[in-house]
Amino acid sequence: MGADTSTRFPGRTGPALRILLTAAAVAVGAIMVWQGLAGGGSADPTAASSSGVAVLDIGVLVFREGLECILVLAAIMATMVGDARRYRRPVALGAGLAFLASLLTWEVAIGIIDRLTESIPALQVQAFTGLLAILVLLLVMNWFFHKIYWTGWISAHTRRKKALLDAVGDPSASRTRILLGLGLLGFTSLYREGFEVVLFLQNYRLDLGDGPVFHGVLVGLALTGVVAVLTFVANRRLPYKKMLVLTGVLLGIVLLVMVGEQAQEMQLAHWLPTTTIPWLVGVIPGWVELWFAVFPTGETLAAQLLAAGLVLGSFAFVRHQVARTVRRASAVAG
Predict the structure, then answer these.
(1) Which DSSP helix (H) or strand (E) runs through 247?
(2) Which of 292, 294, 290, 293 is nearest to 41 (CA)?
(3) Mind listing the pLDDT tens digit for each residue in 141-155?
């Protein structure tokens, strides 16, 4: 996604990695089946409850944000070996505080939104929060944005870390300042992702309640925990770039689902008109509407096509810019 994924912990992938990843996949599958049965659903997508779909979507969202957080922390800690290993602790402490701050942000967000629903119709609040979450998710999924902002985010953290570690040998440098600086690096690495997750999940909470959100977050955190253990404890080299691409594709599907549901909610709130496409009624199976939020209305389909066009268009633009840069470099070299 434009990020530098070459900085990794030492170690090699092997059978242990495959076993752990397989175990994680089985565990997530078991959680999904259990949740579906507990909610009155089943493994059959035509009979699954909408909460089961939400659990899957939320799990993908949380895991994606967690994966990006791990990538930043891995870049920060990768060179902290030998005597410098002790400086991983303040970074880890800062990340831990950021997790607690994310939980506090969740409580604050719930309080604000619940107060809004006392004076504004809940459907309109839900439509607004969903629209805001989609705008942020579109920004996150924008490849041009990732090429500039995400790469710069990692680079800025890496430069700051290097400056702090270089100051360790300076007698005039304050040890407290160095430790606080490293803690702040850990804090910002996690809290940015935590804040985005809090924003993304508000619409799900308003629509489905706390239960599906809790289960979906557990799924995402379980997957994130596996990757974190492999990265920071088992010192495994993980294919972060491939994982980011894979989760990016899954996140793209979640984006389309969110856009379809959001457009329908805006129709219910009378923010958008509803233009039914008669020949699609009865053609789109019920499970497609349930799992992918594809509805037979012109507005919902147009919104999903627009979202897909923005993501794919930004990807094509970045690829074109990279190819043009390579051609220019080749021409100069030739």
Answers:
(1) helix 240-268
(2) 290
(3) 766 556 555 566 677
